[in-house]
Amino acid sequence: MRKTRTQTINALPPLRRRQVLAGMAGVAAAGLLPRGAFAQDGNVLKIRGNANPSSLDPATGGAGSDHVYLYNFYDTLVDWEPETLAPKPGLAASWEFPEPKTLVLKLQEGVTFHDGSPFNAEAVKFNLDRARTAGVSNIKSDVANIAEVEATDELTVTLTLSAPDTALPLILSDRAGMMISPDALGNDPEATVEREPVGTGPWTFGSWTDGEKITGSRFEDHWREGVPGVDNVEFVIIPETATGLRAIQSGQVNIAYQLDERQQQLIDKMPNLTLVSGPTLYIYQLYVNSARGALQDVRVRRALSLAIDREAYVAATQAGVGEVATMNLPQAHWAWSEAASKHVYHDPEEARRLLEEAGYGDGLELDFRGYPDQASVQRQEVLMAQWKKIGVTGRFRNAPIAEVAGAFFGEEKAGDLLLSAWTGRPDPSLTYALLYSEESYYNPGRVTPPEGYMEALQASRESTDQADRAAALARVQDIAMEAHLSIPLSIRYEVDATGEAVTDFVANLLGKPKFRDVKLG
């Protein structure tokens, strides 16, 4: 029996018409796969993973692709609605701001970590202090506004803030809100659990074979009733999207997420698969080390951006499934800014003029970094062909995501530009803090953002009114895009495929699926 295809739908938030992913209420299945198509023992949900994780410790990892793995082993203090990313209770049953610089979290009762130790206010204090201050933490920028964490009682945590921060609840739905067992770290904030995660999540960690497989088994004492929906989860790591599509078509996996946009029409024609598609916060972009050589000059960075025909890029690399990116948010998002978008357009003549003015009229050679999969290489080829027209040359040095990201963003600072993606964050102010704050991991040159940037960013966190926040974020984005500290390219649309046995798969606007409620019929 052929399933009904999901359709992109529209909702209307206060500020802007928002497209949201179809199938948000769940993707229902009518049939079963042939007997033997999947492992029967233990009800195993098999998922095509698109990259080897950089780490399974949320504080030390650096790749946006890690989240899809982390969600299985860790719960977050705050959760969000899939359709809108509006915050809702997680490990924190409720929260309030009794005054602008104080956030009080009330925790769920009866929660334990996978190792049997209790989840309580002291565990939250340990995790947040580790995120704020530990040398191993890559997420200090996420929680920079937290000045002090107090375990007020067994199930109450009081955060004293250095400045008002209404974005903090959603920040605590991301890496900073993923709680690790302090006992698993030996109560040492400098210790790590990069290969043996111990959280409160739906599954307990089983094994990790690099580049091949990650497994987990049901956490019988999970605090959410009916979670997880299957006994075991298994990620089969398949970077190539063509191989990933073959894997779900043949029954090797039940779900393949973040497939290539060019595969959407193929999936829609396969009677044994269901397509889930729609806009996400996933942005293809070029990270720019603005502390290196010619890239210190804003005219060079702007020239690189102006040389790119983004409409042609989307047509060639995404088969037209997606949209041109003019900032680090899609047009569907309530904080998208028309004023900021005017800094990003196609004008190769202006690009050549800027290069000549900057002293590179005879040409410029740059060191590009990227990934070796077929889709990434095609994106590289399209960009190099466009840059060649303005006299910019070079070559891409490719390696797996974790390796390239570690070298580019870490101490080595290898390469001038990295063709990758920004995988989005639940609150837009966190996106702009992480991309451009001076000490942020994702600011490879650790350059100071332009004057007024941090003040505008802080202003975006001082109100709970969405219109006020959007106005402040418009200023943030205008400054960032004018400085061309990164070069956004296009918006990735969700292209997921599920097999006939799958029920209750829910995609989300963030573009990072959670699988805790998925069942196999």
TrEMBL record:
<feature type="signal peptide">
    <location>
        <begin position="1"/>
        <end position="39"/>
    </location>
</feature>
<dbReference type="GO" id="GO:0015833">
    <property type="term" value="P:peptide transport"/>
</dbReference>
<protein>
    <submittedName>
        <fullName>ABC transporter substrate-binding protein</fullName>
    </submittedName>
</protein>
<dbReference type="GO" id="GO:0030288">
    <property type="term" value="C:outer membrane-bounded periplasmic space"/>
</dbReference>
<dbReference type="InterPro" id="IPR039424">
    <property type="entry name" value="SBP_5"/>
</dbReference>
<comment type="similarity">
    <text>Belongs to the bacterial solute-binding protein 5 family.</text>
</comment>
<dbReference type="InterPro" id="IPR000914">
    <property type="entry name" value="SBP_5_dom"/>
</dbReference>
<dbReference type="InterPro" id="IPR006311">
    <property type="entry name" value="TAT_signal"/>
</dbReference>
<dbReference type="InterPro" id="IPR030678">
    <property type="entry name" value="Peptide/Ni-bd"/>
</dbReference>
<dbReference type="Pfam" id="PF00496">
    <property type="entry name" value="SBP_bac_5"/>
</dbReference>
<dbReference type="GO" id="GO:0043190">
    <property type="term" value="C:ATP-binding cassette (ABC) transporter complex"/>
</dbReference>
<keyword id="KW-0732">Signal</keyword>
<dbReference type="GO" id="GO:1904680">
    <property type="term" value="F:peptide transmembrane transporter activity"/>
</dbReference>
<feature type="domain" description="Solute-binding protein family 5">
    <location>
        <begin position="87"/>
        <end position="437"/>
    </location>
</feature>
